[in-house]
Design a protein that fits this description.
The complex is a heterodimer of chains A (480) and B (468).
Chain A: H1 3-11, H2 14-23, H3 28-32, H4 37-40, E1 58-65, H5 70-73, H6 78-82, H7 90-93, E2 117-120, E3 125-128, H8 132-136, E4 141-148, H9 154-163, H10 173-181, E5 191-195, E6 222-224, H11 242-263, H12 266-289, H13 296-302, H14 312-324, E7 329-335, H15 343-367, E8 374-379, E9 383-389, E10 398-402, E11 406-412, E12 419-421, E13 423-424, E14 431-433, E15 436-437, H16 438-448, E16 458-460, E17 463-465
Parallel strand pairs in A: 1-7, 1-8, 4-12, 4-15, 5-6, 5-7
Antiparallel strand pairs in A: 2-3, 4-11, 8-11, 9-10, 13-14, 16-17
Chain B: H1 2-10, H2 12-15, H3 17-33, H4 45-68, H5 74-99, H6 104-130, H7 137-142, H8 164-176, H9 195-200, H10 217-220, H11 242-253, H12 263-266, H13 270-294, H14 308-316, E1 320-323, E2 331-334, E3 356-360, H15 368-374, E4 382-384, H16 392-395, E5 406-408, H17 419-424, E6 430-432, H18 440-450, E7 455-457, H19 461-467
Parallel strand pairs in B: 2-3, 3-4, 4-5, 5-6, 6-7
Antiparallel strand pairs in B: 1-2
Helix pairs in contact in B: 1-4, 3-4, 3-6, 4-5, 5-6, 8-11, 11-13
Classes of the chains: A alpha/beta (480), B mainly alpha (468).
Chain lengths: 480, 468
């Protein structure tokens, strides 16, 4: 299934490897006779997928960057309103670390504003009034109220969610899946990234989050933008026609082949395939991303925002079009949830910017029959504290980062619908049942795609790496 | 004396491994000793068989002591006990046979019989300790079948009608308690798998005092510190969740430990209502999940691996071919790269008729004609025909595809005429009919005929009302 590996294996036989090694004067021949054949074969060639039948063909990850407050959205804690302004009991807080932003506070007053909660759907899930559209689709959703992470600041926390490591440099989840399963659509990348237009003050996002790490570079996420020029540098310059482009690529390809014969660097093959993909995308991308012909009732579903390029709503609509074309992994990022202050006012705006489109995407996938084979993930990198950062009034307060528990939701194939998994204590500070670690979530996503997270490994710099590092267990409790 | 006997009995799980090891070795060496190369082992055999017999007798004796404690179901113990006695006797018999220089054939039969007895005894012993489905459960799961043992009926959809004990409490006991307090094993002489056993209690007396949760062992032991010897389930075993413990407290303290009351009759307060709603929802979902696992679309698949040449041929036509099982004997084919795929090319798919399960023809040029041929793909479980020119005439052919589970007809011109065909597809789980000429009345009738088993998708409300 991984054509590039077959290619390398074919071209670089054991004999070639030995003669080349010997010519280089390394004396490998003598050494290699002592080694089993298996150690000489390229380690990364042996991936045979799936490990078991998949439930899900595609994933769309609606990443809510900044850390949305679970208390204003999904994790209903009436106790916080009852004990408004009172100190968070030391027995609950324990001795765990706080960020530098609140660790100097003398007081940790429990905070809850005027946000109201109601139960919705047959599943009777609690959803706040800030998410009225999401509330209507709760019977499609699987809430995980017991997510927890190891990181307490944005960048390491997002990197952890995306790559399984807090340090930069590992492949992103989409890259792993692209590497493992490839793309069904030859004319679009397997891993596409859509960014909402950031506003000033948002926590920044970096390309490393969708980077391929040590995997071949054709598996990196490709950023699409809405608007006239969805992919940077994809269009031919003025005066260049398709035929000249094709001739140029053919000649370039010959040069690449020559170079490959000399140095056998796999990245050259990656580069060839990227040039070819870009060429095919010149015709496939404009057609796929043209949302101007979407009927009005679709805009009614996603909201008028969907007409403005760069909004979360427009990106949700683009995501649906990409999923319809069988793009394997679509990653959205929406920034602005980092509400250390002015939370009650700001979270209203944030919720408004994502609520309708998130629910519309689920409904739209459903009516097209795609939700049966697609997994939707919605959530941020950590949660927020139950106590106020800074001054607390009923109308205004802030919440600090809280990695010990937060809520995300999923929808789609292979998981239970109208279901809530895990729970937090009545203060919403600690998990009381069924904790789900970031690696557990990653293991579960791979599981749904037919991949055993412990068996999809890639050897780099002498070590075998996994998306889930050395941990992670599939969350069996949410599987349908 | 009684305590010494108890101590000896509890040595059984340890001691039992000595005859297992020795017998394995003895049986292996005995077979090897038949060959000329290892003939020198022959002189060892009498001594080995004597040790085997002795250790087996010793293990049986302490085993008998253990059975006196009465923690295990007598019938289940009897099988294991008689097998163990047979095994000890068998080992002794072979020792005697060896001293009389009997022929090889008799020895082979005897040693073979002992080996068989060894595995049988061990297996039934294992079942006693771990429960009957311990060994086979992963296999059932692997084969996509429901777990062998489950008695809890799925609760009614309406929470108010659910019986508190039967639909909410019992599943918890089944999951977390039956293993030691069930049909095969009764630690502390306690069974929890039926009302009469629960009311009877165990060797420390009654465990359920209506209205007095703190005095009822059925609740009180759940909340002892984990280090306490009396804590249930014991440290290291799967524990009840906080919600489940709250449920049992409420059932004993407020619902009087009644076995017949429904949720409506038990009059729960607000917090408990929430608790019951949550538990009910997860029970419903769990029951649905179990059904789904029980009839996986990949169960019973026995096609050979697809021929690489055939796969390659389809790939060269631009089709995306995906393996769906590690054995590569189930395939998915997606035509997303071949939008001009037409009826004349459909025959190419028939080569993989034994392996093809998922077929995505969405947005291609195919018509009813292609469906006539594709009806030969008898293993198909997922078929996407959305955004094509297929009509009722083509859908009629789908009657020959009994395994279909998922069918996407969105944005086609099918009408209510197709609905009887769909209704007759007994494995169909989801059908997508948004933007077709099917009428709401037709959809309602189909939904009624198939009930909750089939998800009929007619589009989301908002989209339909605005599009019409």
């Amino acid at each position: 299934m991984c054509h590039h590996h077959d290619e390398v294996a074919r071209q670089m036989s054991r004999r070639e490897f030995l003669t080349r090694g010997a010519m280089a004067g390394v004396g490998l021949a003598a050494l290699s006779s002592l080694l089993p054949q298996s150690l000489l074969a390229a380690d990364n060639d042996r991936l045979v997928l799936p490990h078991f039948p998949p439930k899900v063909k595609r994933v769309v990850y609606l990443f809510q960057s900044g850390g949305p407050s679970q208390f204003e959205l999904f994790d209903y804690k009436p106790k916080l309103a009852d004990m408004f302004g009172q100190e968070l009991p030391a027995s609950i807080r324990g001795s765990q670390r706080l960020t530098g932003m609140t660790s100097n506070q003398k007081s940790f007053p429990l905070a809850m504003g005027k946000t109201q909660f109601q139960q919705h759907g047959k599943s009777r899930a609690w959803v706040s009034d800030l998410m009225p559209h999401t509330a209507k689709v709760v019977d499609e959703l699987c809430f995980i109220k017991s997510m927890h992470t190891e990181a307490i600041n944005h960048d390491p926390a997002i990197t952890f969610f995306q790559t399984g490591s807090q340090q930069a440099g590992r492949p992103s989840m989409g890259s792993w899946i692209s590497y493992g399963l490839g793309s069904e659509n030859q004319n679009l990348p397997a891993f596409v990234v859509l960014l909402s237009r950031a506003r000033s003050g948002d926590q920044p996002l970096y390309a490393k989050l969708w980077g391929n790490g040590f995997l071949p570079s054709e598996h990196q996420g490709v950023i699409f933008r809405s608007g006239d020029s969805p992919v940077y540098y994809l269009n031919d310059p003025k005066g260049m026609d398709q035929a000249s482009r094709r001739r140029m690529l053919d000649h370039l390809n010959e040069l690449h082949q020559l170079q490959y014969k000399n140095v056998q660097d796999e990245e050259i093959n990656s580069r060839i395939s990227q040039y070819e993909m870009a060429y095919r995308m010149q015709s496939s991308v404009p057609a796929t991303l043209d949302i101007s012909k979407e009927p009005d009732y679709i805009y009614n579903m996603y909201g008028e925002d969907a007409r403005k390029p760069g909004t979360f709503a427009a990106n949700c609509l683009l995501a649906r079009r990409l999923l319809e074309k069988d793009v394997r992994f679509v990653q959205l990022y929406h920034q602005g949830w980092d509400q250390h202050a002015n939370l009650p006012k700001d979270i209203k705006l944030m919720a408004k910017s994502v609520d309708q489109a998130s629910a519309a995407l689920i409904n739209d996938l459903k009516q097209r029959g795609l939700l049966d084979e697609t997994l939707v993930i919605w959530g941020g990198e950590f949660g927020r504290t139950n106590y106020s950062q800074g001054k607390l009034t009923l109308d205004n307060f802030g919440r600090d980062h809280h990695p010990r528990c937060f809520t995300i939701f999923m929808a789609g194939a292979g998981i239970k619908k109208g279901f809530t998994y895990g729970a937090t204590d009545e203060f919403g500070y600690n998990i009381t049942e069924n904790p789900v670690h970031v690696h557990d979530l990653q293991a579960t996503v791979l599981h749904l795609m037919g991949i055993d997270h412990e068996r999809m490994v890639y050897k780099s710099q002498g070590r075998r790496f996994r998306l889930t590092d050395v941990a992670g267990e599939v969350v069996k409790g949410i599987l349908a | 004396m009684e305590h010494l006997l108890q101590f000896a009995g509890r040595l059984h799980p340890l001691v039992v491994h000595i005859p297992i090891g020795v017998l394995m070795l003895t049986v292996s060496l005995h077979f090897l000793a038949f060959t000329n190369r290892y003939a020198r082992f022959r002189e060892l055999l009498p001594m080995l068989w004597l040790i085997s017999c002795g250790s087996a007798v010793f293990a049986s004796l302490v085993g008998y002591a253990l059975s006196l404690e009465g923690d295990y179901a007598p019938e289940a113990v009897a099988t294991h006990m008689w097998l163990g006695i047979g095994l000890s006797a068998g080992a002794g018999l072979i020792y005697l046979l060896l001293n009389r220089n009997t022929g090889t054939r008799l020895q082979v039969a005897g040693v073979g019989a002992v080996a068989f007895l060894l595995f049988a005894t061990g297996h039934y012993g294992g079942n006693l300790t771990h429960g009957e489905d311990y060994l086979t459960q992963p296999l059932h799961a692997f084969l996509g079948q429901a777990p062998a043992v489950t008695t809890a009926a799925p609760p009614p959809q309406n929470l108010q009608e659910a019986v508190v004990f039967e639909h909410l409490v019992k599943p918890v006991l089944e999951q977390k308690c039956y293993n030691c307090h069930g049909a095969t094993k009764q630690k502390g002489k306690l069974r929890l798998d039926a009302e009469k056993f629960i009311t009877k209690g165990g060797k420390h007396g009654e465990i359920l005092l209506a209205g007095q949760a703190e005095k009822s062992d059925l609740y009180a032991r759940l909340v002892l510190p984990e280090e306490d010897d009396k804590r249930m389930p014991p440290k290291g075993k799967p524990q009840l969740t906080e919600q489940e413990i709250k449920l049992i407290y409420w059932w004993i303290a407020r619902a009087g430990g009644d076995f017949k009351k429904t949720v409506a009759e038990a009059e729960a307060d607000e917090t408990t209502k929430q608790l019951l709603t949550d538990l009910h929802a997860s029970r419903l979902a769990g029951a649905a999940g179990m059904v789904a696992a029980a009839d996986s679309e990949f169960a019973g698949l026995n096609a050979p691996k697809a021929s690489p040449a055939d796969v390659k041929q389809l790939q060269q036509m631009g089709m995306a071919v995906t393996f769906l099982t590690p054995e590569q004997n189930a395939l998915g084919v997606n035509l997303v790269n071949v939008p001009d795929f037409s009826d004349s090319q459909a025959a190419a798919l028939l080569k993989l008729r034994d392996q093809l399960l998922w077929l995505d023809l969405s947005g291609t040029q195919i018509t009813d004609k292609a469906l006539e041929q594709l009806a030969q793909l008898k293993h198909l479980t997922r078929l996407s025909l959305d955004n094509t020119a297929v009509t009722d005439e083509g859908i009629a052919h789908l009657a020959k595809l009994p395994s279909l589970r998922y069918l996407n007809l969105y944005n086609t011109s099918v009408t209510d005429k197709s609905l009887p065909v769909l209704e007759a597809l007994e494995h169909l789980r989801a059908v997508h009919l948004w933007q077709t000429r099917v009428t709401p009345q037709g959809v309602a009738a189909l939904q009624k005929a198939r009930g909750q088993q089939l998800e009929v998708n007619f589009g989301s409300e908002s989209a339909n009302t605005t599009s019409l």
